[in-house]
């Protein structure tokens, strides 16, 4: 394939790469492109996808009016050009870059770029006048869960991030910040460094996402502040009627018209706590959000390997008490050996030329040649605090895991400089990275889809869901890439399904496997914490205790706040009256 263009820098674009990672990003992109067989774009099969029940004439009228009400000349773009999947750092806002269905299935009709909260309000009022569904995105990097794509094809995507991307303030004393939707982890990190305050941000596995958007989807990271929603403080929201709301202490006006001085200090206000209503929902557009930052500290990452596949339950049971007692410093990850192969960035054909899933003996032979040797599971943890407490924590942790036969403990200094653990050191101390993208070289034109059930932290439940997922991966012919984020009481069991975007048959198989996993898991009482747009209805349908009491509650709120059903209809399975 052709040589890829330079990766946009953070100086030039809100969604770009910081200077410190420019070389690595370019090399990663070039490697991925070297495996690409798909052209950058193909001619569109269909004309512009219009919003539902909207004639071309009304659409043109509506767009003309929208253009007039927004200040920037290029504030509205019609989605009529060829669709370009791009690359992680140049992701599209026109469709799902990781299209698990046809590339043209989930497309918007147009993209609007508001440059202020007032313009967001204008857009919402406009949508109500023309009954055109709008779909807000912060950065649109929700890859594996639908990217920037709207649930209802033909919606107008409201790309908040391009123009609204400021870190509004960083408070060094309060250890907090207030951000707009277009602030990525990369950007917040740079801004905190510039501020000079000794503070950390918390980052997920890859750093290109929106801090605000990730928290609204209830994403996680890997410092002690890893629960992103739990560490938010204060929101500003444009409601579906165009009115503006501030939650928490932001609802109490500050002196002289200033923002309330405790907005980023206390999460609640007086009366019900409503912030959660704006996560994984379609009840409002969040335009500002506060976050707590962690005081920088000493830290020590480590890795523990386990030789046997069957030790899985034992590992889970060893983690639980350590996590419950908060001996473990962060939400650790437990990964399967096959990830150790994938995260090297080498394609699967380097290890195996067959078509089905990698046979276990091939994984064993391959992993045996890597520095960790013949192992089945790898645990990545990090401890925090002063050197003395880290030492005492580590001795407790080592003692517990040493009870598992054949386990081995490593510090980063025990492993070669190109080992993945060094990227874990960064992620677990709040430095955003792109190393995790290496997985995307596993197959040509690779994309991924997450299956993300929650299980209690105990060996019998965790083993049950692990077997269910393993069996269905074998049945449908996919390599199993489990990454488990293990807390004291629950596990986010993240399954990374990697597929070739050029292969319609493989994509259909991945969709069928996903459907079957969702149903089979629900029958055993397991549900997903988050899912791709295309599976939202099915997942929402599994949370049906009491004859669907929860969804009825969501729908009552939806219809009161958004009687015209213009805001992200169908998001997380919540449909407005008359559209389900
Ligand atoms: C990961 C973790 C997630 C998620 C998607 C991916 C990690 C991948 C804990 O949540 O939703 C390595």
UniProtKB/TrEMBL annotation:
Residues 1-55 are annotated as: Disordered. Its cofactor is FAD. Pfam families: FAD-oxidase_C, FAD_binding_4. GO terms for cellular component: mitochondrion. Keywords: FAD, Flavoprotein, Oxidoreductase. GO terms for molecular function: D-lactate dehydrogenase (cytochrome) activity; D-lactate dehydrogenase (NAD+) activity; FAD binding. This is FAD-binding PCMH-type domain-containing protein. It comes from Hymenoscyphus albidus.
